[in-house]
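Practice problem 4.
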């Protein structure tokens, strides 16, 4: 029965993916000039990729395009698990939304990095670990942001829209989960340079045989070229000047939309035209205290935490 059920799920997922792909062909985003391209891999399955050369600096909000990018398409065998999540039969691990960084095989408490505006200012974003699930799909979150020396507190919501289980096609392509969520994060309006963030969060996860109901953050390739996860793609709007709306994205390691800012092939390489002391600190590890013991692996900690 279990095998028959999985076959049925695969068929339904494939049919739905074909329908989504067919709809995308009529979508204005799927054009020759769109930065979102569709290609086939070596096994014939279709996938999206982002042509950073086709990105338009005049376009502020790329959240809708990112949601499309995260949605399975033709050739991907998947199950929509959103209802299982709503019913409580599937859940995110407690620290899924908390920010931290990696140093080799170790994690350490740290913010993640992102960009703000067309000049690609460095923004650091830190989520506290105490995210609270307030209803079937909504998490209440708190944290802090930092741009240059300006620090703001924020609170808000991350609301799950879709969770997809993408099934393996071969031994080298294990099952994984895609999580798509809306987010709205409001900085403290009494603080200098504050505003509100809106957009789409996309993340990848996995489950284990020991706990098949718990989705864990998939950081198995965190040292790999092009690794990205828990990407927040949207906008920041100023409280003081509501007409000021800027592109804002952050996440684990690389960003999905890089423009001409990140020009690295494998790892992050910042275009010299956007070089700032804050980005230099990041690239030269000046934010970190790195301990190199005579024996054993080196460790890193964030220097002078501001959160």
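Answer key:
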């Amino acid at each position: 029965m279990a095998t028959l059920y999985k076959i049925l799920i695969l068929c339904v997922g494939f049919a739905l993916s074909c329908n989504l792909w067919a709809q995308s062909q009529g979508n204005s985003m799927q054009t020759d000039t769109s930065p979102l391209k569709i290609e086939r891999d070596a096994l014939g399955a279709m996938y999206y990729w982002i042509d950073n050369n086709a990105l338009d600096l005049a376009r502020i909000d790329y959240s809708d395009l990112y949601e499309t990018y995260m949605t399975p398409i033709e050739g991907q065998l998947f199950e929509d698990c959103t209802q299982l999540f709503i019913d409580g039969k599937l859940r995110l691990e407690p620290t899924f939304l908390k920010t931290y960084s990696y140093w080799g095989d170790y994690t350490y408490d740290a913010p993640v990095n992102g960009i703000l505006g067309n000049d690609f200012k460095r923004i650091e974003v830190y989520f506290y670990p105490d995210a609270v699930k307030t209803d079937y799909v909504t998490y209440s979150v708190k944290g802090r942001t930092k741009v240059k020396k300006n620090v703001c507190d924020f609170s808000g919501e991350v609301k799950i829209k879709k969770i997809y289980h993408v099934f393996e096609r071969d031994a080298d392509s294990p099952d994984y989960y895609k999580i798509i969520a809306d987010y709205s994060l409001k900085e403290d309006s009494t603080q200098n340079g504050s505003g509100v963030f809106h957009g789409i969060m996309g993340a990848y996860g996995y489950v284990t045989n020991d706990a098949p109901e718990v989705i864990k953050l998939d950081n198995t390739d965190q040292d790999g070229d092009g690794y990205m996860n828990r990407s927040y793609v949207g906008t920041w709007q100023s409280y003081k000047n509501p007409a000021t709306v800027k592109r804002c994205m952050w996440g684990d390691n690389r960003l999905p939309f890089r423009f001409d800012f990140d020009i690295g092939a494998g790892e992050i390489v910042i275009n010299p035209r956007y070089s700032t002391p804050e980005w230099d600190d990041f690239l030269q590890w000046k934010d970190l205290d790195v301990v190199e013991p005579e024996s054993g692996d080196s460790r890193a900690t964030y220097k002078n935490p501001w959160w």
